[in-house]
């Protein structure tokens, strides 16, 4: 059985978070069960973009602080690293409050700048992952619980996509991002190349709606932990009330028969999942696609009708160019003082929406998708 621990922490008060993390790890043997004196321990938070902590886009700095201090108390050296979706790591760390924690605790901020080729073990033959990610003695995955417009939910497994450096993320979106199932398999294959020794999820204030960058904060007062990232994701999704059929990572993990993918192999302690759930299920992202599972010839013909396409929100878009640079197939340009989209080239990965600093892009449904939604509402 794969053990997942759930603990309640009401706020980001420093002492409360510290006590909550200690309680969270106690059933797993405490931090000393994962870290040895003298080891270099990479703590990999969610550093998606340069947003303040209260936006719930990134791992909260007080959760990072507690983990750093517990690592230091074992006699190990904590490193903090990630490759943000947009912007340099230093800027994201500063804006999110994580840089101040790193400096105050004496931890080391490690940029993911250099990649190392790694042979794949499944569908994809090779990957290039950040050298510090691969070379650290131990890896602690410090994820944020959020909804996600492409994968429905981002938690432990998706957080490890940050091991892919900079522009290589766009290349993977271009290679696998047109098919959610394939993209999920790619994320799982990255996870299998370097499985974290410990996974901790910051869900004290999670995100719902159009996550991972433009949703709304959702207070849940919860922390999750476990040694198996897939199992932790399964339980986090259960607590969030997300329908299983929309969890592409979980579906792909079951297809691969990965440990932790099946609910009956997971045991929970601390707060029971049914008691941890408070309020209605998480509000999900905009349903943007119903074409997956169709034959290829139909996908090509009906793609624009069965998907949503990004458009600029009048009055919000300032032509900052972030979406232009972030688009993997280069389907967005600025023409005549406004954004122009090549919807034939667009792969609907929604990186533009994910990384837009002003939430200035919305989704417009194709005709058939709009009809399907109308029928669903009527039933």
From TrEMBL:
<dbReference type="InterPro" id="IPR017896">
    <property type="entry name" value="4Fe4S_Fe-S-bd"/>
</dbReference>
<dbReference type="InterPro" id="IPR017900">
    <property type="entry name" value="4Fe4S_Fe_S_CS"/>
</dbReference>
<feature type="domain" description="4Fe-4S ferredoxin-type">
    <location>
        <begin position="338"/>
        <end position="366"/>
    </location>
</feature>
<dbReference type="InterPro" id="IPR007160">
    <property type="entry name" value="DUF362"/>
</dbReference>
<keyword id="KW-0479">Metal-binding</keyword>
<feature type="domain" description="4Fe-4S ferredoxin-type">
    <location>
        <begin position="308"/>
        <end position="337"/>
    </location>
</feature>
<keyword id="KW-0411">Iron-sulfur</keyword>
<keyword id="KW-0004">4Fe-4S</keyword>
<dbReference type="InterPro" id="IPR050157">
    <property type="entry name" value="PSI_iron-sulfur_center"/>
</dbReference>
<dbReference type="GO" id="GO:0051539">
    <property type="term" value="F:4 iron, 4 sulfur cluster binding"/>
</dbReference>
<dbReference type="Pfam" id="PF13237">
    <property type="entry name" value="Fer4_10"/>
</dbReference>
<protein>
    <submittedName>
        <fullName>DUF362 domain-containing protein</fullName>
    </submittedName>
</protein>
<dbReference type="GO" id="GO:0046872">
    <property type="term" value="F:metal ion binding"/>
</dbReference>
<keyword id="KW-0408">Iron</keyword>
<dbReference type="Pfam" id="PF04015">
    <property type="entry name" value="DUF362"/>
</dbReference>
């Amino acid at each position: 059985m794969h053990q997942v621990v759930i603990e309640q922490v009401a706020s980001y008060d420093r002492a409360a978070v510290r006590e909550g993390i200690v309680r969270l790890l106690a059933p797993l043997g405490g931090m000393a069960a994962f870290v040895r004196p003298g080891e270099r321990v990479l703590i990999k938070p969610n550093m998606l973009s340069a947003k303040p902590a209260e936006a719930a886009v990134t791992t909260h700095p007080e959760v990072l602080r507690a983990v750093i201090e517990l690592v230091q108390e074992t006699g190990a050296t904590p490193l903090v690293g990630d490759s943000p979706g947009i912007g340099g790591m230093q800027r994201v760390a500063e804006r999110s409050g994580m840089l101040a924690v790193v400096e105050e605790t004496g931890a080391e901020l490690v940029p993911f700048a250099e990649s190392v080729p790694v042979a794949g073990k499944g569908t994809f033959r090779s990957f290039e992952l950040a050298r510090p990610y691969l070379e650290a003695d131990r890896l602690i995955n410090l994820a944020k619980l959020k909804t996600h417009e492409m994968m429905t939910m981002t938690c432990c497994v998706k957080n490890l996509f940050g091991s892919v450096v900079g522009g290589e993320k766009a290349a993977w979106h271009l290679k696998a991002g047109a098919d959610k199932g394939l993209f999920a398999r790619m994320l799982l294959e990255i996870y299998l190349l370097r499985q974290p020794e410990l996974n901790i999820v910051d869900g004290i204030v999670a995100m719902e709606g159009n996550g991972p960058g433009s949703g709304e904060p959702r207070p849940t007062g919860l922390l999750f932990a476990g040694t198996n990232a897939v199992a932790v994701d399964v339980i986090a999704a259960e607590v969030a009330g997300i329908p299983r059929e929309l969890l592409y990572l979980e579906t792909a993990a079951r297809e691969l028969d990965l440990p932790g993918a099946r609910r009956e192999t997971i045991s929970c302690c601390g707060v029971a999942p049914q008691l941890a759930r408070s309020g209605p299920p998480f509000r999900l992202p905009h349903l943007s696609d119903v074409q997956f599972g169709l034959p290829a010839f139909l996908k090509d013909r009906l793609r624009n009708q069965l998907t949503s396409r990004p458009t600029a929100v009048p009055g919000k878009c300032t032509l900052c160019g972030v979406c232009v640079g972030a688009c993997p197939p280069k389907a967005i340009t600025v023409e005549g003082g406004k954004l122009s989209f090549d919807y034939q080239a667009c792969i609907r990965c929604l990186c533009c929406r994910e990384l837009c600093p002003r939430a200035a892009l919305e989704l417009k449904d194709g005709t058939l998708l709009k009809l399907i939604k109308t029928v669903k509402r009527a039933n």
